[in-house]
Amino acid sequence: MIKVMTPPxxxxxxxxxxxxxxxxxNTLRKHRAEIGSSDAVQRVLSQPEYLAEQLVVIRRRVEAxxxxxxxxxxxxxxxxxxxxxxxxxxxxxxxxxxxxAMPRGEGNEVVYFFKPRPEVYKNGFISDDCLEKEYxxxxxxxxxxxxxxxxxxxxxxxxxxxPNVTHWKDAEGKWCYAIFDRWGDERGYRRGGYGWxxxxxxxxxxx
Length: 207
Description:
Elements: H1 14-30, H2 32-35, H3 38-45, H4 48-65, E1 69-74, H5 81-86, E2 91-93, H6 96-101, E3 108-114, H7 128-138, E4 140-142, H8 145-154, H9 158-161, E5 164-169, E6 175-183, E7 186-190, E8 201-206
Parallel strand pairs: 2-7, 5-8
Antiparallel strand pairs: 1-3, 3-8, 4-8, 5-6, 6-7
């Protein structure tokens, strides 16, 4: 059953941070003989990416328990629309005219990923018009595709666990879509859709 998506009430507390550090310290002491030599450990501790990797682990586990997934991204304003998707390194299934006309982000963004309420799905799907109401219900507007691409560029495995989407209307009032997913062994980006099933996470930003 899909839960109703609500923003977190507060960030991680100091007590939770202290508890996490205590758990980590006790685990390292217990398994120190299995980890390796002190010299090798010292070299690892001097690598800045080591701490970033630790954050990824706890963040993904917390997200698995949470109702909302949050990503902070920085959009490169000098890229063309096509370059934005090329930078993700994914196989693309796109309409070049749609890509060139898609809305542009404003730079630094906090992107939220949510799922609609279970009751809004009809026969297992939700339409784009109904999806707009869900964005409104959760206090979001659709994220621009530049920001969505930036999330998937920064974390290529993100769409493996969170197939993600945003949508917008073109100049003719037709719905357009940016979709990041994995099909078999391929990670891709594509445009299209005939209604959305409950596997999708929708990208939004605060109004």
